[in-house]
Specification:
mainly alpha; about 55% helix; about 0% strand; binds acetyl coenzyme *A; acyltransferase
């Protein structure tokens, strides 16, 4: 076998793999994806089983602690999370420094990073107890901070968390409840919200998770690392796709115009891509997209929304694309983001909040991966190499001699 390290030391050879299409950066026991078969497992459990039978906090327990909780552990975990749902009152003032029309993802990058300025007693990454407290705080506070970002944008008062509600119910309450009225959520909507959180909980070494690991590899504090993950998630090629899908469906406008957009997506001279289609790993139907589509029907049904125009366009777009040789040959299937926007819009979320919900749900994945990395005895600071293509060296020219 070739000793790559020795070879590089002697000859300067190393792998060149833009976008890390075939380079493993770590060992991980958290999530498994078989992209050809469309399989997604968390700690060995199929995503379909988890989405069908668990609530989000059970999945959080599974990702973070390695096992699904028994009834006592579930109760303890829920108590621990609800204990941390409030944010420091001073942090809530932080929001008023932002413009009201700021994108809520911009606000989330800022306030999540700012957590490290408030919770000093959970920033020592070498202390396992502090690491676990940081993880609990992040899972617990993310819904509060996300709901506050929404409330700030619409000029309504912040709602304090209600610990008698489930994780998803509490988030919906803090987002859509007001102090002036008794608030009730339809259990189907709360369950749909919970399922959306489960479907986004982790997805191994994607761009945002790799960013969290890379930031964490320098032993930066966990709150700063999660803020870096939020920043990476924001892009439309990643988590920002759910927002981009809805904007695309709005732009398409009618079923009749779909062929025009399919044509554009295939045109190499046109930067347009079908948002919500394609995936680096899945070369088959994203298993999460199937569950999301079913959830979409349930939500529209309970909300009494018939003939939702975006859904009609989405279904027809999916049908046409799946039969088109370009998409077939390149194995471009709908991904998790394709249907989530339609559900979230029906629930009343503005498009700008879609990626925030993704970040909220993915926080447990990020922090579980971060934790796994810190505990890995092989852990090293992430430091990719490069192929230098610049000038090999030239004589310095003083300012007065430069033409
Ligand atoms: N529409 C049209 N063509 C596409 C699409 C698309 N959505 N996605 C990929 N292709 C084409 C590319 O043009 C490329 O063609 P080529 O080989 O002729 O050059 C080929 O398929 C492979 O695409 P890459 O960009 O090389 O694949 P990569 O694995 O790097 O990218 C990605 C994956 C970023 C998800 C891509 O499919 C994409 O941009 N999709 C749209 C955005 C999206 O939905 N992102 C969400 C991903 S899931 C998530 O993050 C939660």
């Amino acid at each position: 076998a070739i000793d790559v390290r020795k070879l590089y030391a002697e000859t300067g050879y190393f792998t060149f793999d833009p976008g890390f299409t075939s380079t493993a950066s770590c060992e991980s026991a958290i999530t498994y994806i078989d992209g050809d078969e469309g399989i997604l497992l968390h700690r060995g459990y199929a995503i379909q089983d988890l989405a069908e039978n668990c609530d989000y906090l059970e999945v959080c327990h599974l990702l973070l602690r390695g096992e699904l909780p028994n009834p006592q552990q579930k109760e303890d975990f829920e108590r621990t999370i609800t204990y941390h749902t409030m944010v420091h009152e001073q942090l809530s003032r932080f929001y008023s420094g932002f413009r009201r029309d700021a994108h809520p993802m911009a606000v989330m990058c800022g306030v999540t990073g700012a957590l490290s300025a408030f919770y000093h007693d959970s920033t020592d990454i070498l202390d396992p107890r502090q690491r676990m407290i940081a993880a609990h705080r992040l899972i617990a506070k993310m819904p509060t901070m996300a709901a506050m970002a929404y409330k700030y944008s619409v000029g309504q008062p912040f709602m304090y968390p209600r610990n008698d509600l489930s994780y998803a119910e509490n988030f919906l309450y803090m987002t859509f409840g007001t102090p002036c009225e008794a608030w009730k959520v339809d259990p189907v909507l709360a369950r749909a919200m919970d399922k959306i959180f489960i479907l986004h909980a982790d997805h191994e070494q994607n761009a945002s998770t790799s960013t969290v690991r890379l930031a964490g590899s320098s032993h930066a504090n966990p709150f700063a690392c999660i803020a870096s993950g939020i920043a990476a998630l924001w892009g439309p090629a990643h988590g920002g796709a759910n927002e981009a899908v809805l904007l695309m469906l709005e732009e398409i406008g009618s079923v009749e115009r779909i062929p025009e957009f399919i044509k554009r997506a295939k045109d190499k001279n046109d930067p347009f891509r079908l948002m919500g289609f394609g995936h680096r790993v899945y070369k088959n139907y994203d298993p999460r997209a199937k569950i999301m589509r079913q959830t979409c029907y349930e939500v529209l049904d309970v909300m009494g929304i018939k003939d939702e125009p975006h859904l009609a366009i989405a279904m027809e777009l999916e049908k046409i694309a799946l039969e088109d040789p370009y998409f077939v040959e390149k194995k471009l299937y709908p991904n998790v983001d394709f249907y989530s926007g339609i559900i979230l819009k029906a629930m009343g979320f503005p498009t700008s909040m879609f990626t925030v919900l993704f970040a909220l749900a993915r926080t447990v994945g990020w922090i579980s991966q971060w934790q796994e990395m810190i505990e890995d005895p092989q852990q090293k600071i992430g430091r990719p190499r490069q192929l230098y293509t610049g000038n090999p060296g030239r004589a310095f020219v003083p300012l007065n001699k430069r033409g």
